[in-house]
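FORM 7B: Structural annotation worksheet

SECTION A. Query
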Amino acid sequence: MSAARRRVLLLGSTGSIGTQTLDVVAANPDRFVVVGLAAGRDAAGLAAQAERFGVRATALGAEAAEALVRDVEADVVVNGITGAAGLGPTIAALEGDAVLALANKESLIIGGPVVKPLVAPGRLVPVDSEHSAIAQCLASGTHAEVRRLVLTASGGPFRGRTRESLADVTPAEALAHPTWDMGLMVTTNSSTLVNKGLEVIEAHLLFDVPFTAIDVVVHPQSIVHSMVEFTDGATIAQASPPDMRLPISLGLDWPNRVPGVGAPLDWTRSQSWTFEPLDEEAFPSVALAKRVGTAGGTRPAVFNAANEQAVHAFHGGRLRFTEIVPLIEAALDEVPEAVGPVDRAAVLDADRLAREAADRLIARRA
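SECTION B. Predicted structure
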């Protein structure tokens, strides 16, 4: 094994981020080597990946993944787990020596007061395309020169629809994203724009920019992945075809770029990009997320947990699409803010209480 190769521990290996991470590793065997794999429930898929990449260290489930992070020596831990289950592995990675390539935004969002103090300079690299784009754009100026961050959103499958017209949309329609294939939870969150709300909170935590200086704009082509506006009026944007392998590769070897990991834009071809304001009446989730993020504490944990329960209820036929965000608001009203310092136990307790409250509210509506 070459000492120059970066040792990769991949969590959520059978999901969308995980399989694309393995694509990058397989295409660059002189640069990366997989030393550990963890999946949620797909034991057969995990076993096949382990055989393909010659990996002996594997784990199934979030608790086993956290133990694997603490046991396996790696240069970079890719956390591609979906949802709040990724909190423990994120904490374990930051308490160790490896760089954390974070695709599991929820662990930072719900555990901000716990996770942020563990982050040393250069130890946390975002893998979300929007936050990777912002990190790249920020290289053009100092933190003091940033006026605002602009996160782009494709608008999802219901862009342009009124709130009234969304009352009877089906789970299949919500999963028909025009650009990305991200699994049930994230794709549904993109259709409600809850995902963009979560990304606003993540951007605040990653880049120490106030919520008043973080905006969302709808960009249906998904070519400009986000922008940074500086105090002199300049705006720096990161543009590339929609392909998660680019931000994944940067997560694996930040700040170094991996040649040939993605196809560039064809600047010889005529093309048009459009930008539209966000319709906050049809999609109130971003404004709600900003209020939740501003409140801080365990409020983001309640927001995330209630949403996860609501999404599962929607796909189970127990909740309408337009009831998802109101249910999150109702859960926020039911679950009190934690008293005292916010530690891991307080975050997990808020997560549990929010799921219980959401389930009660869903049962009443059903």
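SECTION C. Observations
DSSP finds 15 helices and eleven strands in the chain. The CA atoms of residues 34 and 167 lie 45 Å apart.

SECTION D. Sign-off
Analyst initials: ____
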